[in-house]
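Form 7-S
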Amino acid sequence: MSIEALRERFAPIFEKIAASAAERENKRELAYDEVKELLVAGFGALRVPKEFGGLGATIREQFELLIDLAAADSNLSQSFRPHLIFVEEQRLYALKGSDNAKNWLKRAVKGKFFGNAVTELGFGASKRYQTAVTRAKDGSLRLNGEKFYSTGSLYADYIAVAADLDGKRVSVAVAANAEGLTQKDDWDGFGQRLTASGSSTYNNVLVNEEDILGDGYGRAGRSWATAYLQLVLLASLAGIARRSKEDAIAWVRQRTRTFSHAPAALPRNDSLVQETVGQIASAAYGAKTAVIGVAETLDTVINAGGEDNDLLELTERTIALAQGVVINLSLDAASRIFETGGASVASSALALDRHWRNARTLAAHNPLSYKYRSLGANLLNGEELPYHWSAGVREV
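Output:
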């Protein structure tokens, strides 16, 4: 299916999501119906191969659509982050012949949604999980622990939980309605408020042997997943830049009031306002271009099996370079929209401030200063780029 056909399939849903995004933001309402509609249309099975019932999209096509979704509501593009990485991993396992992975892909095709629960409180928590799977006296496996962030999990049918099993990192699939699982919508960030990223607690949750999915977050060595996860955030930022452009254009076109010293009677004819809109549009273009560039590199890496060290090194460098571009451009675009005229642009009914708040929150996931330093040390001294997915993260 071409990107044009995919866009035609999802565009009406994206438009509906965009139309209600500001209202959901002001009311703090999670988008349960919108997520369900996306899943029914196959958004969660974009990367599932056609032979398994999916849409068979390329990485580039998926990320183009993810930018489209982020432009409608960046909360939703981030909410899909754990689902997309879960499907991508199962896709690779399925192509290598895993029947269990094929079963998980079938669930994605049927519209099931996968959340995650990885992060725990405390220094080095990703290397020292307190959440653990243990064997009870009756021989059953039980999961116990607490996770600080559980992105997307309030929408989920299954949650991929990072846990310790006999000293080994594993990923455990848990049904969202499992007895002993408690979820809270307690994420209190000033941006990305509606990502369903609250905490989750696991109290003696029963685990089936077939639901232990192998190595979890923190596996040894490089992985394409590092860049993939970061690219979802950058796609969300690129979507914010595009929405900032579209909202700026819509705002200026309908505006009739201007400043007494403005060079034109209508804001749309004001050369300074025109310049500002042009700057926002350029920022949106640059952010998208950077994301698509990384997506094309990821396509190459994953199509080669995801294990080529040279390609993985290239992907790490590409995502690091793109991060500086996309973060700066999206924050600039989200801020410049307020230069398009008057205090009325700050009306809470418009909720245009959400663009900057969301961009700032997304950018905080991977501090840019760390990326710049790593790039500089790599280019000047050949120092290895960090790979945060792995167990090999340096001690501080």
